[in-house]
Amino acid sequence: MPAAPSALGAPRAGMARSLRSWLGSCLLVSALGMVPPPENVRMNSVNFKNILEWESPAFPEGNLTFTAQYFSYRKFQDVCTGTALTQCDFSRLSKYGNHTLRVRAERADEHSQWVTLIFCPVDDTAIGPPRVHVGVVANSLQVRFSAPGIEMEPGTWTMRTFYDSWVYHVQYWKNGSDDTHTVACQRDFEVLRSLEPLTTYCVRVQGFLRDQNKSGEWSEPVCQQTSGAEAAPSWIVVAAVLGAAVCATCLVLLGCSALLWCVYRKTRRVFSRGNALPQHLKEFLSQPHRHRLLFASFPCPDDSEVFDKLSVVAELPRGGGGSGQDAVGDTGSLGPPAGWDPPTT
């Protein structure tokens, strides 16, 4: 078969490269006594989960450890030191700006040269697949999706938070068919209408950055079968919603009116007990001219008036022929009656 040699060619080529690398490292160690640097250094970043990876070089004198750093505030900061792993987590880097990363191999007091890498998370990270939920409504599919989340960030933050040009590509097709349809939308849901009834459709979604022309990973296909019933016309749905809203408003108004009426009756009953006017006073006040007479009968007080208390004492004459009269002067003092002589002792 012609395909067999090509299938075996790739493993053989990889083995040849590894053998050449191992031989070169052995010659370098034997000739110069140097520790070889890490090989195939790369950044594996998905949804800002930044993992620096490398391969350990061939070193016949023993196992190697590694140190990885990044440049910050005019000096390199250690992230992983003396690790035997061939990877290091740089997920705490700022999402924006270029970062200089480096890694080296170490053995005892010896170490290799640094291998440097430039990395910008917001530009270089890969976009993972979104979460997708598909529901069936008559001969339509309601597709809801959300952008992938980010580790070590608040729960409400997603990949969409960091990209203004984020859109979704929704792709759907009949199950078993190669004819696909793609819809772009900025919302977190899409309704696929006018589908064939009783037919199974498959849907998958990906994030897409328009300004970078960068596509994310597709989600796993979700397949659902449409039902045989047709969806109601849109005007019927709108009318039903409006009717329900009007009925709810009327019920609320009736409830408020009944509540106010009950409060009014309770208040009237409480404040009217024992405070009713007598019947004759009600009849008196019911006539308008009586109101004026009632208020006019009370003199207006004058704070400037001064009153003196006056006591009158009258004494009959000795003859008893006259009648006693009170005599009061203009000044309010008491004097003897006219023609009356005081008695002598």
UniProtKB/TrEMBL annotation:
It is found in: Membrane. GO terms for cellular component: plasma membrane. GO terms for molecular function: interleukin-10 receptor activity. CDD domains: FN3 (cd00063). The keyword Transmembrane helix applies. One of its GO terms (biological process) is defense response to virus. Keywords: Antiviral defense, Disulfide bond, Glycoprotein, Membrane, Receptor, Repeat, Signal, Transmembrane, Transmembrane helix. Residues 37-125, 126-229 form the Fibronectin type-III domain. Residues 317-345 are annotated as: Disordered. The chain crosses the membrane at residues 235-264. It is a single-pass type I membrane protein. Residues 1-33 form the signal peptide. It holds the Pfam family Tissue_fac. Shared cell surface receptor required for the activation of five class 2 cytokines: IL10, IL22, IL26, IL28, and IFNL1. The IFNLR1/IL10RB dimer is a receptor for the cytokine ligands IFNL2 and IFNL3 and mediates their antiviral activity. The ligand/receptor complex stimulate the activation of the JAK/STAT signaling pathway leading to the expression of IFN-stimulated genes (ISG), which contribute to the antiviral state. Belongs to the type II cytokine receptor family. Heterodimer with IFNLR1. This is Interleukin-10 receptor subunit beta.
